[in-house]
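note to self: the first set is below, dont mix up w the second
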Amino acid sequence: MNTDSLEREIADRLSAEFLHRPAMRQEDAVKFVFQAMLGVGHLLSSRENVTRSIARETEALQADSAEPLLEILSPAWCRLNLRPAKAAKLTPGIIAGLMLTSDSGRLFTRQDVADCCRRIALSGDSPLTDDAVSDRVPDEQWLPSHSALYRETYHPAYRVISADWIPCMKAVRNIAEKAAGVSRLLVTLDGPCASGKTTLARKLARVFGGEVVHTDDYVIPHAQKTPERLAVPGGNCDAERLAGEVVIPYKSGAPVRTRKYDCRKDVFLPEEQLPDARVLILEGSYCNLPAIRKYADIRLFLDTPREIREARLMSRESAASMRQFHERWIPLENAYFEAYHLPDDGQILISM
């Protein structure tokens, strides 16, 4: 989305916000544009400080599942309302994690925000006017705040997070709810190659203080890649070893010791003990094979448009490797999805 399109969308959302909350004043409108463009980056500190701040605020709030959990500010950012978050068992630590995984760098400057405010003000379709509030935005020491009237009327309580979390919010809520009642939660994250599973798994692990294990570390050794083995859907994965080393010990409360397999060198790496974690995310294709899926508490499936996946593969793979993907690995993966009818009704589908 180019800058002009972004500005039009922000202006439209601001006008809709004014209709929904007519007590908005100039400072509230500037704060809206400020957050829509700069997001959460201007407020980040340590996770401990962010968590403490949220905990102090939520302690006095009444949980309210009727209030919308998310309100979109722009294609990049949204507000996470704290009252429904409390109802959904999103703890202060989880919310802090969502914020800290949302800092994607500042694409705009404060001057860009001030200029956007002035242009929107000239349109006359919002509570923005070209006055001293917009002039203060470029000052790095200044932070926007809601007007007294807005606070008294609407009692705002929210944090800003990346809009990238919107399609994942059902998964986040399910993990939060189930993690609250168990000592160890196993989450599987399946999906086609280059769909973004590894990136999402790392972000979820950071949000929930979890650990990640990759099925790519549990492919079968080259000597076992016979035509007969690869003809079995999912046969490229050593699901039995993965279940025995990781899944079963984790679910039984025992220490987890992994032996990653280096496919390029065709060797097993030294054994490592996985740090104990309340949430373990098993990421990668083949994590829904029968030997594994029966132990999963939550199963996710990440669906990303094919053209995006192709572009990602082309950016990171050589021409020879791309041929391998198209001629061998993707067909094997598709055969596995078809054989086990994935995604199925028991999975939470995340469409990015």
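second set (the one i keep forgetting abt)
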Amino acid sequence: MNKQRIELLPGVFLTVLHTDKFKTNCLSLNLLRPLCREEASLNALLPDVLLRGCKMCPDMGAISRWLDERYGAGAQALARKMGEVQAIGFFLDYIDEDFVQSEEHLTEDICRILGSFLMEPVTENGVFRRDYVESERANLINAIMSQINDKRTYAMTRLRETMFEGENFGVSKYGKREDVESITPESLYAHYRRVLETSRIEIIFTGKTDVERLCGYLLAALKDLPRGELTPVSTTAGRIPDHVREAVDSMDLTQAQLTMGFRTGITGKSEDYPAMLLMNGIFGGGINSKLFMNVREKLSLCYYASSGMDRFKGIMLVSSGVDMDKLETAREEILRQLEACRRGEITEEELESTRSYLQSALKTNEDSPYNMDEFWLGQQVGGFTYTPSELSEKLGLVTLEQIQRMACNVTLDTIYILKGGAGNGEA
């Protein structure tokens, strides 16, 4: 795979990922916004409303027919959280032009409708249609409330809110229910105009194309895009805590959720990132990890136990499902497994199986156009410079001593427990 990056317009960048692995091409347009309570819900709602209708296709039926006529092309709204950046927009996929009649210009068509979705929304009385806003607002509220039904997801949401109180990273990519409920067609349209003018835009193409023609199609589609002073977006690693915070909520459930948040200070920009990634994998990142093999399998303290890294924020989060009477024992054992990593008590099998798993995952990631899109968007958002193959190569060079040093760099910040009993949660 080869990569090109081009600035099409002020603050509008195109990344082309050249690959012939797929029979489809994919194009995403991402407006980058600072993640914050004030606009999170507006941002999350906006692409769904824009995808309800545009000048080329004024309603969902017309959009569906238009896509079907182009060999079943697809279009979906996007709302992604990358550190303290909210990326919103559209993802379109369509069959590669090598497989259609030569006179058909699918890439040009896809760029045209992408521009129409963004620049030519259906309006009434100078704002978004009320029925479109109300319908998508209800859908977004349902998505927010559904998190309560998935207790694992809800517990992790509450962990982030507690751990990052006062930091924008604690804000959900959907925002809050009460914020969604307050959105009107007028307020959303006013926000839309600000977003168009002040957002950095990252466009990512995955597949085969003539880059010069693609640039021409996109420039034609975005020729009327207003450009002003861009709103800066960035993510900070955050402070190392001076004490451990703890929070407990109660719900009507039989299995407790024990979650832990750790600060590492190591983001994707750090030379130590490959070592930290491997340390997390050994600790709790897979089926051969210490949390899975010891806390879950050997000691039967958890129904599940795993850890995950965030390359933007430099944190490690642990999630586990535990019987009520085993909460304290499970908590102690999870921390004991981290101490084992700090002491370098890592077998050759643990090291090499985790290394192989992570390297395989990086390679497999390139088998999905959407995963490639998300990876490279994250690289641009985070300012990370490594390619998947470069990261895989660096993982192959990580030593046990480096992993041990990374484990010593991990600091517990917050423990959040969702247990059974009286009380109601709120997303």
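remember for set 2: The radius of gyration is 23 Å.
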